[in-house]
Amino acid sequence: MSKHSDLWKSQKWKKLRQNLFRLQKRVYKAVRDGDLKKARSLQKLILKSRSAQFLAARQVTQLNKGKKTAGVDGLSSLNYRERMELVETLKHYAHDWKHSGLREIPIPKKNGKTRMLKIPTIADRAWQCLIKFALEPAHEATFSADSYGFRTGRCAQDVQKRLQLHLKSSCNGIEKRIIELDIKKCFDRISHSCIMDQLIAPKQIKQGIFRCLKSGVSPEFPEHGTPQGGVVSPLLANVALNGIEDIHPSLRYADDMVFILKPKDNAKKILDKVKAFLAERGMEISEEKTKLTKTTDGFDFLGWNFRVQKNGKFRSIPSEENHRNIRKKIKAVVNNSNYGAQIKAQKLAPIVRGWRNYHSSCDMSSSRDSLWFMAKTANRKFRKEKKISRYKATELCKKGFPKVGYKQNQHVNVKGTKSPYDGDLVYWSNRNSRLYSDATSKALQRQRHSCGHCGLKFLEDESVHLHHVDGNHDNWKPKNLVAVHQSCHQQLHWSNPKG
Questions:
Q1: Backbone phi, then psi, for 104, in 5-degree steps?
Q2: 3-state DSSP: the chain helix, strand, coil percent, rounded to 5?
Q3: What is the distance between the alpha carbons of residues 304 and 318, in angstroms, rounded to a whole number?
Q4: Cβ(482)–Cβ(452) below 8 Å
Q5: For 439-473, what is each residue's pLDDT tens digit?
Q6: Which of 62, 114, 239, 269 falls between 20 and 30 A from 54, CA-CA?
Q7: In terms of pLDDT, which residue wins out, 7 or 161?
Q8: C-alpha to C-alpha distances, 213 to 186, 194, 198, 437, nearest whole angstrom
Q9: In what order do the strands lie in the sheet with 291-294?
Q10: What is the pLDDT of residues 96-151, one digit of tens each?
């Protein structure tokens, strides 16, 4: 085992990333220049690239959040020998991949119904990741500037800022209306022929994607659907929906979408065009969930409530549902009798910090949004535990509810149709640092937006981690904090398990 472990860990991951990124930039440029023949040739090179094969295997076995979810083969993780074997499998069979069946997991929905999550095997996920490396830069060159969901270099906060720009007082947002569009079972109804017609890819990739689509079909709709749970599924959904933004000024995050209407715009005509667009792709609107709303009445989108106030000013706050969800998560930790106060504070900190970071461009001034009551309840529960003084409970609450600065509409939008594959590393690394706050942002600025381990510029395909040099996670002095890639963080802990 140590032989395969050493072989895996000794890979020159920095060089592999550079090799893959160089090919992806060339694919992006070829499509931008209209040279599809050259783009397809480069995509074949990515398929054969040893760098891409290693990175795909690492992504699904080591980095992805769902890396321990088993497929129909029952495998939920791979040891180092199996990872090396997976790379060899990709080397020999990526050009003619036979997709296995999918494991179905029912997920409850808000309305009481269930949706089916379809999980591929680890090997299939690695192949899909390899295919995504080849497909994504090609389609990034064609995607609309108003599409933000599941795209590298873009985030939900971009939508939040764009809505503010559309609805601010100088744009007469008080007189505008919003169509909240809901597509009925989007992922389950996407036409296979529509996806295949729009894919920019060589024959062997298209053939593999077709087999992938057919492995997850519903008997009721054999020519429709892309399995939710697959690595490449969100990209395929974006491919199918690309162009819907051109119908009318709108903002789309995957299959969630809002259209922005001026007083004279005809909502029925716009919806008729949307229905015709979706019908060509095998989809339809959910009439019961699609609604026309005045901006002064407010509407929920991506976890926020947006509203234009009577004085014409735009305001966004966390939505009621989003707030309900964070309260549930906090209560689950605070009320768990299996943990002591110290462990509870450690578990609360990333939950609260993540929630506050997501909403850092909102108005978070209310007591509800400051989580004041939740923190007070946690403090009271901590004090009930043995040997916890009032002072100690207060200190633990400060750790469990870390402060994150906020300022309404502070987010800086991504520029137009820019993509990380355009090679503008200075722009993307600077933008990446703005997406983080406090200690992480300061560490990125000190390091000039480069990883403290491998030295590469930070893009947005991998999250930034803070590494504590002395291994003491309570030591937050600037000298003890280094911003590193998620994968580099893992390498640092391999070489120093106590750190």
A1: -95, 130
A2: 50, 15, 35
A3: 4
A4: yes
A5: 777 787 787 777 887 877 776 556 778 888 887 77
A6: 239
A7: 161
A8: 14, 12, 15, 40
A9: 250-253, 256-261, 177-182, 291-294
A10: 998 888 888 887 777 667 777 888 889 999 999 999 999 999 999 999 999 999 89
Q: Give the separation between CA 127 and CA 207, rounded to whole angstroms.
A: 13
Q: Each residue of 39-60: pLDDT tens digit?
A: 999 999 999 999 999 999 998 8
Give me 207's structure tokens. Answer: 């053939």
Tens-place pLDDT, residues 259-317: 999 999 999 999 999 999 999 998 999 888 899 999 999 999 999 999 999 999 999 99
Q: Is residue 89 within 8 Å of 125, Cβ to Cβ? A: no
- For the cut 90, the answer to whether the pLDDT of residue 4 exceeds it is no
Cα gap 371→295, rounded to integer Å: 27
Rounded to whole angstroms, the Cα distance separating 366 from 372 reads 9
Angstrom CA distances, 414 to 70, 147, 170, 427, 434, stand at: 36, 11, 21, 10, 11
Find where tokens 């074997």 sit. 85
DSSP codes of every residue in 424-472: -HHHHHHHHHHTS-HHHHHHHHHTTTB-TTT-PBP-SSS-EEEEETTS-
**Using an 8 Å Cβ cutoff, are 293 and 299 in contact?**
yes
- Rounded CA gap, 421 and 142, in Å? 12
Helical (H) or strand (E) element with 202? none
What is the residue type of 363?
D
Query: Looking at the DSSP assignment, which residues form a beta bridge with residue 118?
Result: 104
Six-digit token string for 152: 């590298």
Pairing type for strands 177-182 and 256-261 reads antiparallel
Residue length, the chain? 499
Distance CA 341, CA 349 (A): 12
> By three-state DSSP, how is residue 410 classified?
coil
CB 449 within 8 A of CB 458: yes
Q: Distance (Å, rounded) from C-alpha 102 to C-alpha 72?
A: 6
The closest of 85, 6, 80 to 53, measured between CA atoms, is 85
Q: 């440029």: which residue's tokens?
A: 29
pLDDT of residue 219: 67
DSSP character for 145?
Answer: T
The span from the CA of 1 to the CA of 18, in Å, is 28
Classify 114 as helix, strand or coil.
Answer: strand
pTM for the full model?
Answer: 0.87
- Give dist(CA 288, CA 184) in Å, integer: 10
Residues 4 and 81 sit within 8 Å (Cβ to Cβ): yes
Q: How many CB atoms lie within 10 A of CB 243?
A: 16
Amino acid at 278: L
User: 206 near 115, Cβ under 8 Å?
Assistant: no
- Count Cα neighbours of 419 within 13 Å in the Cβ-side half-sphere: 28
Cβ-count burial 312-323 (b if 16+ within 10 Å, e if not) = bebbbbbbeebb
